[in-house]
Amino acid sequence: MRRLTFILLGALSILGCDPVSDMEADIENLTSQTLIIDVVSAIVELDTTLQVAPDQTQRFQEGFDIGSTYLEPTFMDIDSIVVKNQAGEVLKVYKENSPGKNIYNVRDWKSSEPSKRFFKYEFEILLEDLD
Fold first, then answer.
1. How far apart are CA 34 and CA 41, in angstroms?
2. Rounded distance between C-alpha atoms, residue 65 and residue 95, angstroms
3. Which of 104, 109, 127, 128 is nearest to 119 (CA)?
4. Given pLDDT bands bounded at 50, 70 and 90, which one contains residue 66?
């Protein structure tokens, strides 16, 4: 009886834990040139630069949240995302209200849930997206 009580208390404590959700957001370069992606923010710590070779993918964001059952990429503190070629020429500037396919619009990302409370997002950059 004592053993059964211990097992029941252990099971209840596990069931009572808050769920943890994980998220990965990647950028995939489907062009024939290496892309430099500058993430610009008023918060200097959030400024980042990604270099994505042709037909390669680079991690844009990742995160987790305790108690949440759904996560998606967030752009709250990001001012703009600038896509350049290796020569430093600006090919595209994404802003929150940019028309057309926009990195800020989560609906423009491919999304999946490979496992329970693990969300994966992928934003594909095609040659026509840079026009």
1. 23
2. 26
3. 109
4. confident
| CA separation for the pair 38, 42 (Å, rounded) | 13
- Which single residue is written with the structure tokens 């404590």? 13
Only one residue has tokens 């430093």, namely 88
Angle at 17 between CA 72 and CA 66, to 5 degrees: 25
Cα dihedral 89/95/97/98 (nearest 10): 20
Question: CB count, 10 Å around CB of 19?
Answer: 11
Joined tokens for residue 80: 């703009």
Mean pLDDT, all residues of the chain: 85
Q: CA nearest 23: which of 125, 114, 124, 94? A: 114
Percentage of the chain lying above the pLDDT 70 cut: 82
CB-count exposure of residue 28 (10 Å: 0-12, 13-18, 19+) = middle
With 0-12 / 13-18 / 19 or more C-beta atoms within 10 angstroms meaning exposed / middle / buried, residue 111 is middle
Which is more confident, 118 or 102?
102
